[in-house]
Amino acid sequence: MNGNIYHDKRAQWVVYIVFFVSLGLIPVMQADPFLLNQLAVFGIYGLLAMSISLCWGTGGILNLGQGIAFGMGAYGMAMTMQMQSQDPEFSPLPSFMSTNGLEQLPWFWEPFWSTGGGIFLALAVPTIFSLIFGALMFQARVSGPFFAIMSLAMLSAFYILVLDMQPYTNGANGISPRMPLEVAGYSLDPYSPAAYWLIFGLLFSLTVLAKLLNQSKFGQIVRALREDPERVRFLGYNVALYETLIYAISAFIAAVAGCCFTILIQYVSPDQFDVVFSITMVIWAAVGGRLSLIGAIIGAFLIQGSESYLGDQFLNSWHLILGFFFVIIVRFLPNGLAGLLEMLLAKRSRSSTEESPPHGRAKSPAAANAEKAGV
Amino acid sequence: MDYSWAPLMGSLVLGLSIASIWLVAALGLTIIYGTAGVINMAHGEFIMLGAYAAYCAQAYLGTPFLLCLPISFVVVALIGLFFERVLIRYLYHRPLDTLLATWGVSLMLTQGVRMIFGSSPKYVQVPEFLSGNVSLGIMNMSSLRILIVLMTVVLIVGIWYLFYRTYFGIKIRAVTQNREMAASFGVNSERIYMCTFALGAGLAGVAGCLFSALAIVLPTMGSNYVVESFLVVVTGGGPLVGSIAASAMMGEFKSFFSYFFNSTFAQFLLFVLIVIVLRFRPNGLFANTAVRR
């Protein structure tokens, strides 16, 4: 076999199967509820890193404001869960609203009486917002670093807005629903294996869907415009439309992650809109490898895992280490750890086909690059 | 309408003060972005380092406040020079990666300063003539804010002179417009980039020194300025005149909105307004059409 096994589709699916089967088996072997909850939170980080990888790796759109969709999703779910514990007749107002002087439930809280409607809004609002914001930006051909800065500005605008609207969002204190989410009479205990499997199932299905999307014609066009938007435009494609769509899809995944986050933590605060958190998502994807969906997920696991488990020894210097590591990755490994693996495998396949160099090296680096589908 | 005119005029003067603060914070960023196209996410941390340089000079050497300004400039310019040499110069052709790498630098700087100086706030003393208020007829303004306005004007004139009236400035503008062509005329573009980056960092240091007197000095203070600085540069489009116009408009709008709503909601409105402006002028108000990269 010539060519890099890294680009072999069958090998990629084998990696997927091994990765997800081993993740799925964890609750069978490990029953500690707190550990399961923490691992499920890591799964959410994996979802976020994967969404960044889709937007930035596939589409070349560096989004420093993924926290907008994540935070909106998290707040939407928190509002849903909060309203589940309110009584429509005797105590229709969450207690923080009455302490802040509200007498009536604000109109935009009303739909959250219904669990289904609330979850629908928690997912739909961030997606529609991203469609509008993306369309505004991409139609004006704002791209590259400019888009990154604008997404960052938008994120910090939301941060101060949520912080400021104390009566409606409880400001810096955030919303902490008393009860776990209840769906169709079943209460979803955040420390149960069921919660873990919910997150795992979402991570699994969304990642597989994202990979199929990457391999579709849509994915190919999006990758093409990452390399050269002008040329794609000359070929007659509506570049802004494709950019907006991939940005909105990525935002939808982040919104799902936001919903799951509130289910697991039962707490939401403006920290979810924090600039540092959004850039941390980008760091996960960059370290794991932005071109590879699974690489980005592993990057999130690695960084958050080491923060939690090495954190005690390096508590003071953690950001110093993280910053240094990130600089090294950007400087020497722009495609992250997955890129490193790709390079190593390429070296191996080259040495194994050394006897027939013209055949083995028929592919130019550019051609190989164009073929790259992302693991 | 019950609004009287005096407070509105007052808020316009306040807007000028806000604008000067944002502009002085964004000056270094403007020069670095305008010349080399580098998005320096560590800019806020350079401001923070300038503030700490002023604090150290005052606490350990007893330097008077006004002398801290050049000290901050030199210290932060040297730090900027160091990062340019070891990191940024390898990334000039990858603008998105400079953004990420400088974010890593900013993480390291924040944490490094926190480990050395601790998380408790530091204070910088200002001389007596700067701690009072000056009456401007319709309102009182702290003399420190007036100093910042004056310093901004001085710095702008200085930068204008450097860019448009010196031989070095000609070389900078030549490299900005066309790096290869300038290089073929014997301009060492790498050295120009290096000097510009150090100059931009130094200007951030001066801004930090000024802000150290305005607010408390904290390892995280940089993040208070970085988003606004970036918006000034992005809205302005890169050239110096763009940043001046953008910061003036942003400051006045912020102050104007704050007059009708509260200050946080004014900030939100301002950001939304900038998004809409960029929809119609995606390269900023004063896009430098001569730049080719």
TrEMBL record, chain A:
Composition skew (Low complexity), residue ranges: 363-375
Please indicate if the UniProt record lists Transmembrane as a keyword.
Answer: yes
What Gene Ontology cellular component terms go with this record?
plasma membrane
- Top-rank taxon, per record: Bacteria
Q: Which UniProt keywords apply?
A: Cell membrane, Membrane, Transmembrane, Transmembrane helix
The membrane-spanning stretches of this chain are: 12-29, 35-56, 68-85, 112-138, 145-163, 194-213, 234-265, 277-303, 315-333
- Cited InterPro entries: ABC_transp_permease, ABC_transptr_urea_perm_UrtC, LivM-like
User: How is this protein positioned relative to the membrane?
Assistant: Multi-pass membrane protein
Keyword Cell membrane in the entry? The reply is: yes
Disordered, as annotated region: 352-375
Q: Which residues form a coiled coil?
A: none
Give one GO term, molecular function aspect: branched-chain amino acid transmembrane transporter activity
The subcellular localization recorded is: Cell inner membrane
- What protein is this chain from? Urea ABC transporter permease
Organism of this sequence = Salinisphaera orenii MK-B5
Automatic annotation (TrEMBL), chain B:
Question: What keywords tag this UniProt record?
Answer: Amino-acid transport, Cell membrane, Membrane, Transmembrane, Transmembrane helix, Transport
Supply the source organism for this entry: Salinisphaera orenii MK-B5
Q: How does it sit in the membrane?
A: Multi-pass membrane protein
Highest taxon above the source species: Bacteria
- The main location class comes to membrane
**What's the protein called, per UniProt?**
Branched-chain amino acid ABC transporter permease
GO BP annotation list? amino acid transport
Family per UniProt? Belongs to the binding-protein-dependent transport system permease family. LivHM subfamily.
Q: Name one GO cellular component term.
A: plasma membrane
Taxonomic lineage from the root: Bacteria, Pseudomonadati, Pseudomonadota, Gammaproteobacteria, Salinisphaerales
Question: Pfam families recorded for this chain?
Answer: BPD_transp_2 (PF02653)
Which InterPro entries does the record cross-reference, listed alphabetically? ABC_transp_permease (IPR001851), ABC_UrtB_bac (IPR017779), BCAA_transport_permease (IPR052157)
GO MF annotation, one = transmembrane transporter activity
TM spans (from-to): 12-39, 59-83, 95-117, 137-163, 192-218, 230-249, 256-278
